[in-house]
Description:
Structural class: mainly alpha
Distance between the termini: 18 Å
Radius of gyration: 20 Å
Largest sheet: 2 strands, parallel
Oligomer: single chain
CATH topology of the largest domain: Glutathione S-transferase Yfyf (Class Pi), Chain A, domain 2
Number of domains: 2
Amino acid sequence: MRRITLYFPQASRPVCIAWLLDELYFPCSVMFPDRENGKAPQAFKARTRVQQWVHAAKSMFILHALATTYARWLSPQRAQDHGDTQELEKNPSVNMQEDFNRLDKGLEKWKTGFLVGKTLVDADIMVHVSVQYISARALGIRGVDTKKGKNVAEWVDSARRVMGTRKLWIRRGLYCPLGYVGYWWITWDHGKLLTSVICVYFGFT
Length: 205
């Protein structure tokens, strides 16, 4: 089982997570830095890229996608027949195109094939699901030059391959892909080992 690392900058969220892990008797390694002028060290703040992408997945990508989704769902049939719905989609589509451009630039900047570091983490999983939702429904990206998003396309394929090869390990309770803070809850039921993953993310990885 992969050991969890708890980054503990002496703030409320890591205190809650530390308490939870202690109640669960779950072992973890603790990174405990001294605060600088009463604040979390700058080196810790540099690790918040994961938190930024996790938040972006739902508060930016999906939020922008819902504007187009609801336009399609709620437009009367006559509006769809006359092309009014497609016209209505144009303005919110700009936001999604900007989201994809930001994702592409982020991948280009780090050049590792993943959003943070050299392997799949919770940031990749969260954004990947949002991107797949948007792409499958062509929300705001119809007619967009896909060559501009080459990094995104390669990242999607890479994430799929990695997640595919890890399914077996996840089912066996030997690997947790969702970052550092979480726990495996293992119980026995009629002689069969049931493994569930409950991951609690608090902003550092």
